Prior knowledge:
Layout: H1 3-16, E1 23-26, H2 28-41, E2 54-58, H3 85-92, E3 96-101, H4 135-142, E4 148-152, H5 159-165, E5 168-171, E6 192-196, H6 199-209, H7 227-232, E7 238-242, H8 253-268, E8 271-275, H9 281-299, H10 318-326, H11 329-342, H12 348-368, E9 374-378, H13 393-397, H14 404-409, E10 413-420, E11 426-433, H15 438-456
Helix pairs in contact: 1-2, 4-5, 9-11, 9-12
Glutamine binds next to loops.
Amino acid sequence: MPTLSNVEKSIQLCAAQQDLRAWMHIDEQGAQASAVESENRLGTALERPLEGVVVGVKDNISVKGMPLTCASNMLRDFQPLYDATVVERLRDAGAVLLGKTNMDEFAMGSSNETSAFGPVVHHLDPERVPGGSSGGSAVAVAAHHCDVALGSDTGGSVRQPAAFCGVYGLKPTYGRLSRHGLVAFASSLDQVGIFTRDLHLMARTFDVLAAHDPMDATSSPQAAGHAGDAVGQPPTSFTFGYLPDHMLAGCDEEIRSAYQHFLATLEKCGGTGTCVELPHLDLWIPTYFILATAEASSNLARYDGVRYGHRAESGSDMTTASRSEGFGTEVKRRLMLGTYVLSAGYHDAFYTKAQQARRLIFDSYTALFASVDVLAMPTTPTTAFKRGAITDPVQMWLSDLYTVSANIAGIPALSMPFGTDSQGLPIGMQLQAAMHADENMLAIAGTIAAAAQEAAA
Ligand code: GLN
């Protein structure tokens, strides 16, 4: 693999396709220097597991020597002092860190329209959104700017843009990948996720990143990954659950028919399906938006104009003025909602209720995975929509209908590309599995990907 020329090609492609706005920052010199080192190591005893693999990192994950903005005016000039643990692990594994990718402001959004630096554009249709909030990472991988990208998935921000852009997007089990150095949005839901075009590379990257980290108090003690081996030996039989029709009511017709085709493919490659009634579908979105906004209102209190980020020049109340100027509309909406659901008098009615609903959702998944290996679902109710098409915030939040429950329950989930709609826009299908069954889920995805490829050939 001619590493330096690969990296140079990537840099040229990013420059030629700047209009996509997938990148916030490109570290040309740093990437070239690691490419030279990788070239020297490749094929020798010093070769590392991700030698020369070109990687983009979402701009809410700390990379020493690169800016970290969270696509917000609040952090426009912020320079982090250390590498996130996942970034350190990528460096140690020989990956070439190309730069930081654009996103929705503070990872709040489903379309990348909330970035303070301009929206990311879908690589196949300039009028459409790439999904969010990790849309820059999804486009960077889909448009071959890099091989792997990191994102963060609090309620679907890796899987939904992966589906819209036609690539793989993995949200691991909560705690499998360290959150040290990931800017907190909703700490009990946040998980670093991975984008790739290839499932084997996904598994190798997962294995490099999954590890216990003493710097993250919620890091899983059983973190080490063995997905590479699992995907190399895909199972010939497995069990899966699928959703009854009424749970698909919110989906476009084309997504519904792709889902039927997906289920038929699962059966063809050794899957035995059972229709599962997952209760509480109506609770998923409200539970997520109460918990996520409550946690965000607490996490984002640190941006006060004193210690981090933007400071207002004038105003009698410096903190209020700094926050008013630094945050965009969607972030403010979330912070106000979060503060409201935590406030005295409303706490029990909203926050405590949402915690109780979270337990019910978690229990329904535990019961489900006692009888099936994976649950098959669409990733999104629609394919990529046009920029500006959704103006009602609640309507936008509904794009996360099928993704938020995995974060609420802490379970692993993978979006895999599965064909296109009649306009040629990618469709994503999702697998979910029990906590810590990431490897088995990826292995099953390997079987399906092979069968889907055969069918397409
Ligand atoms: N789209 C969801 C939201 O707006 C999910 C965000 C995320 O996963 N970071 O909250």
